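Weekly sync, protein design subgroup
Attendees: M.S., D.O., the rotation student, P.L. (late)

Item 1: inverse folding check
M.S. brought a backbone from last month's batch and wanted to see whether the design step gives back something sensible before we order anything. D.O. pointed out we never logged the input encoding, so this time it goes straight into the notes. Structure tokens as presented (230 positions):
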């Protein structure tokens, strides 16, 4: 009663932290409810979308459906373009043969870039395969490994710069175009892969399989070293 009198006299007086409004007490969240907020939010979003659709006319619902289909088709077309561009770039340059055989490649920058790339791929394997698949952690990466994403971003930018300096003696300014096309091609390849753990595994298969393409390309590659350059 004394506490209630103080709050009545002083509206801004702090309340008992163990009691909410009207004397309601906060209870400990059960263990089985931990990690459920995202699922509840997703279900709420789906129900809100269904309610919005119920308020639309038949013509508006048909229009919304076609807009969704066109957006899906545009994403697939864009993804196919960049994947095709990356494949053509690999064929045109015979990239993976040149970077291993050409003496024009700056080996110091190249090896440092490979070390950074190996770090990022190891982190992705740890987060996408070990944590998400094997341990069953469904939380976003920035939640259960908050320092991993900034570290990977910094190392990723460093990797791009090191590769650029490593390949500059071979391709010059074309190096930047090669990097952009390869990055967009690799990212957009996910549009054609199944979701979930199988898609993550296939992304790694595509990444490491690209290193073997030099065995399938019959020519030496664009800007490959000539005997008179030695």
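Designed sequence read out in the meeting:
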């Amino acid at each position: 009663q004394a506490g209630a009198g103080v709050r009545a006299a002083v509206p801004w007086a702090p309340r008992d932290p163990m009691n909410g409004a009207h004397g309601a007490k906060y209870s400990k969240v059960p263990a089985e409810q931990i990690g459920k907020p995202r699922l509840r939010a997703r279900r709420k979003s789906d129900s809100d979308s269904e309610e919005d659709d119920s308020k639309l006319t038949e013509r508006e619902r048909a229009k919304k459906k076609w807009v969704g289909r066109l957006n899906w088709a545009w994403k697939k077309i864009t993804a196919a373009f960049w994947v095709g561009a990356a494949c053509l770039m690999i064929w045109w340059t015979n990239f993976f043969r040149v970077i291993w055989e050409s003496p024009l490649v700056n080996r110091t920058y190249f090896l440092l870039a490979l070390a950074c790339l190996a770090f990022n791929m190891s982190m992705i394997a740890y987060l996408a395969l070990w944590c998400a698949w094997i341990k069953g952690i469904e939380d976003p990466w920035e939640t259960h490994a908050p320092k991993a994403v900034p570290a990977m971003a910094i190392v990723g930018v460093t990797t791009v710069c090191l590769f650029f300096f490593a390949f500059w003696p071979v391709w010059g300014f074309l190096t930047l175009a090669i990097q952009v096309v390869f990055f967009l091609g690799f990212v957009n390849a996910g549009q054609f892969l199944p979701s979930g753990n199988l898609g993550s595994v296939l992304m790694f298969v595509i990444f490491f399989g690209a290193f073997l393409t030099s065995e399938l390309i019959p020519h030496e590659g664009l800007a490959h070293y000539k005997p008179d350059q030695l």
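Discussion: The CA atoms of residues 105 and 167 lie 5 Å apart. The radius of gyration is 27 Å.
Action: P.L. to compare against the previous round before Friday.
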